[in-house]
Design goal:
The complex is a heterodimer of chains A (138) and B (118).
Chain A (H helix, E strand, L loop, with lengths): L3 H29 L8 H33 L5 H30 L9 H17 L4
Helix pairs in contact in A: 1-2, 1-4, 2-3, 3-4
Chain B lengths: L7 H40 L3 H25 L6 H9 L10 H11 L7
The chains are: A mainly alpha (138), B mainly alpha (118).
Chain lengths: 138, 118
């Protein structure tokens, strides 16, 4: 019995929580932005907790399980993985910027505002990541 | 939603926590890089003992990613000069350089008492 499928399952689970957290952050920020500024703080603090307790740990686990899989199966020289990694780095960076902006909004009391184009960018990146990982076309 | 505001103390506490996380990750990243470069790599290439590199390589990889991501998250919060941002990312590539972040980040955290980040 090989450990590999279980590692894949752990990686996919972490990815689901990561992308769920990223999408929830984007959609919730859009909703919060519609409230008057003085009523936004509670929801922003909840979003900060979601980011800290769900999305950020999911990101770390995604990387740990993903790199373990790539090393285990010897995928590293493959082109599809290199291209996939570029999208994964972009998604990770987006999460870092999203999270930093949220902290600034909470800290400085500025009005909530989501990153323009982040939602559609995440969907496209995830679609390409899934194609690269499952179909391995290159 | 009820009317709520965040106090300056709470806001500074948020920033201090972030700087503390970055400081801890900086220490971990610098330690794993120094161990890899100064111990594991010589053991592999001079004494033919690859196990150290085999273990420390991925461990440092994760530490590097965690530090870089936290640094990005920190500077995305605003209040950092371009030279400070460059310094945060350059030290991740130089053995022992991460240790020089410690006092610098503590000074920044100390400067938060009674004021916002510069």
């Amino acid at each position: 019995m090989t450990f590999y499928p279980y590692l894949v399952a752990a990686h996919v689970t972490a990815v689901v929580f990561l992308v769920g957290g990223l999408m929830a952050h984007d959609r919730m920020m859009n909703v919060i932005a519609q409230y008057p500024q003085e009523q936004q703080t509670g929801a922003l603090a909840a979003l900060l907790r979601l980011d800290r307790h769900v999305t950020a740990p999911a990101l770390l686990l995604t990387w740990i399980f993903g790199l373990s899989l790539a090393l285990w199966a010897g995928w590293f020289p493959s082109l599809w993985l290199m291209v996939k990694l570029a999208f994964v780095v972009a998604l990770s960076a987006l999460h870092g910027v999203q999270s930093g902006r949220l902290r600034r909004i909470v800290r400085d009391g500025k009005p909530a505002k989501s990153i323009p184009g982040a939602g559609i960018g995440m969907v496209i990146a995830m679609l390409l990541i899934a194609i690269l990982a499952v179909a391995k076309p290159i | 939603m009820a009317d709520q505001t965040i106090s300056p103390q709470l806001a500074n506490g948020l920033e201090r926590e972030q700087l503390k996380r970055l400081e801890i990750l900086s220490i971990i990243e610098a330690t794993t890089l120094a161990s890899l470069v100064c111990i594991a790599v010589p053991l592999k290439h001079i004494f033919g003992w690859p196990l150290g590199s085999w273990i420390l390589g991925p461990v440092h990889g994760i530490a590097f990613l965690a530090y870089s991501w936290t640094a990005l998250q920190t500077v995305a919060g605003g209040g950092w000069r371009g030279s400070d941002v460059a310094r945060l990312f350059v030290v991740a590539f130089l053995p022992f350089a991460g240790f020089f972040n410690i006092s610098w980040l503590r000074q920044r955290a100390g400067a938060l008492d009674g004021q916002n980040v510069e």
